[in-house]
Amino acid sequence: MSTTTATARTPQPLQPGVDRATTGGDLGRLVARALRREARRLDALFVNLALPVGIMVVFVYVFGGALTTGASGLDYIDFVVPAVLLLSAGYGAALTAANVAEDMNGGMVDRLRTLPINSWVVPASHVIASLVRNVVTAGLALAAAIALGFRPDAAVLDWALVLALVSGYVLAMSAIAVVWGLLVRSTQAAEAFSFIVLFLPYLSDGFVPAETMPSLLRGFAEHQPITPLVETTRALLLDQPIGNAGWLAAAWIAVAVATSVPIAAVLFRRRTR
Amino acid sequence: MDDTAIRARGLRKFFGTTRVLDGVDLTVPAGTLLALLGPNGSGKTTTVRILTTLLAADSGSATVAGHDVRRESAAVRRAIGLTAQHATVDELLTGRENLELFAGLHHLRRGDVRRRASELLDRFDLAAAANRPVATYSGGMRRRLDLAASMVAEPHVLFLDEPTTGLDPRSRAELWSVIRELLAEGTTILLTTQYLDEADQLADRIAVIDHGRIVADDTPDALKGQVGSERLVLRLARDEDLPSAAAWLSTDGDGADAGPHLDADARTITMAIHHPDRLRRALTQLHEADITVAQVELRTPTLDDVFFELTKAAA
Questions:
Q1: Whether pLDDT at B252 is above 70
Q2: Distance between CA A173 and CA A129 in Å, rounded?
Q3: How many contiguous H segments (helices) and E segments (strands) does chain B have?
Q4: Does B109 touch chain A (CB under 8 A)?
Q5: Please, which contacts does B151-154 make with residues 24 or more away whose CB atoms are closer than 8 Å?
Q6: Do B81 and B181 share a domain, yes or no?
Q7: What average pLDDT score do residues B275-301 get?
Q8: Is B108 part of the contact surface with chain A (CB cutoff 8 Å)?
């Protein structure tokens, strides 16, 4: 029986009340932190709030008059809305790369990893925060479109599918962004990912019909993932036949999530070992 | 219960083919402060990262607060706090939000989260800045918040990796007094530093690390005693005489370990004086060699001397 533990030098913990540790609770705290960070960054606020409205206005009023919708016979605003939705949400999702890189390259990840939590909740919290932010962003873009004269013709089920599709797209983009954010060693390099993501929708069937492009670009536009996503969203919103674009879109999202999540997990383990 | 808060045995770590740690042994009794003293790249941060479960050693073992850092990392994490070299708080959140976040992630109850954050803000003199984003804080305030964040769960063992690097003297003194308070309350602290005076001021024991090895581990006084003698510091009338003066003085070695050497600024020669007679002979030697001495100083050994002694073999 040692009595040394009763000496004055031995720490006497105050024993503050400790809640049962839940991973869900930890995730919630870190998602709240990530959202709070976004709300304090002017550039992030701009991307999430002003950009979707701005792009919608530019395409409908500035470019819309001169652009053709080709064989679809649609008004330009009806044609372009799905692409602007996905562009805005995807661009916001790409910023996840910078958020992850900032945590990894600063000291924050060290602090978080010495806490009694599962460390994978750190990147996961960025993905979930991105999902919340960018679905709201897509909603804003849609509201702007409706204010500008977009008249969707969608049933409740169609709306639910549009929500699922946009969420799936944001999830996939955010997961890929996490991979990118873990690969690069600086926040600046992480930000480069947004530009790729911003550029991709322009080379799709979203802003102008692919049939108007030179053959090389047309080949790319017809086979890249944004095209079936845009076509599915357009068909759902305007009550048109979806064809096989729906399955293609779902498959692209599933493949992107199913490959990037394990890669992110491996990279995260490697970076934190 | 064991009275040892930190025990490391034979820690080795390679980064690629570079050997960063080459068998580090450390023992820190509960409630004491050990200063891990060494230059940049000596392995201080790697040691701290292994002991705080952030990095796995290639071989060797370590226990912190009685738990194995590798097999019981969750238990170690509940017992420790870490203030890493780079600020580990969220710049965009306020001081209070940071502390509440970490308290929440330590799973304190909701009411305790708020209470604990307020306590720490008061204690670390941050109450006035509590609701400002950390990005607006000064270096000293940020360090104090970092330290407060490490104290959220009242850890038994605290790791401070170069806590005062880059701070102005006033902030440094403030941080020292906080560290002394924590020590007085019974917290065990492992502090890394490049500053000898910092180790001398705060530590119960000093472990000197160089090239991944502990080259000395003793009390500050014993380390000074190990070198054991007074130091003669000579400044010459002509700086260009310094090398030849050092060479002359070396011919009269008295078996001591601190032979004459040029100091880092290359303006003075320092040598150990193990016998008072050595001082007279040294000055005579230089006189006979026609070297004019401009200034003579005799002083007790500092930790700088200890450090020079202990690391010169490896240098």
A1: no
A2: 13
A3: 11, 14
A4: yes
A5: B151/B81, B151/B120, B151/B182, B152/B81, B152/B99, B152/B102, B152/B103, B152/B106, B152/B108, B152/B116, B152/B117, B152/B120, B153/A16, B153/B78, B153/B81, B153/B103, B153/B106, B153/B108, B154/A11, B154/A13, B154/A14, B154/A16
A6: yes
A7: 85
A8: yes
- Domain of residue B291 covers 226-312
For B211-239, write each residue's pLDDT tens digit.
899 988 999 888 777 766 778 888 888 88
| CATH assignment of the domain containing B164 | 3.40.50.300
How far is residue A70's CA from residue A211's CA, in Å, rounded to a whole number?
8
Do B204 and B239 reside in the same domain of the chain? no
ipTM, interface predicted TM-score of the complex: 0.82
Domain endpoint, select from B161, B183, B218: B218
How far does Cα B183 stand from its chain's mean position? 15
Look at residues B186, B218, B250 and tell me which one is the last residue of a structural domain: B218
Q: Please give the tally of structural domains in chain B.
A: 2
pTM of the model: 0.80
Q: Are residues B68 and B156 in the same domain?
A: yes
B29 and B141, same domain (yes or no) = yes
| Same-domain check for residues B36 and B180 | yes
Whether A4 sits inside 8 A of B89 (CB atoms) is no
Nearest one of B168, B253, B274, B161 to A110, comparing CA atoms: B161
Among chain B residues, the shortest Cα distance to A40 is held by: B92
Specify whether B274 is located in the same domain as B193: no
Q: List the structure tokens of A96.
A: 């996840």
- Pairwise CA distance, residues B89 & B79, whole Å: 19
Q: For testing the chain B interface, which of A114, A118, A268 should be mutated: the one with the most B CBs within 10 Å?
A: A114
pLDDT band at B127 (very low <50, low <70, confident <90, very high): very high
Average pLDDT in the A181-189 region? 88
* B186 Cβ under 8 Å from any chain A Cβ: yes
Q: Do A17 and B112 touch (CB under 8 A)?
A: yes
Question: Is the distance from CB of A134 to CB of A92 less than 8 angstroms?
Answer: yes
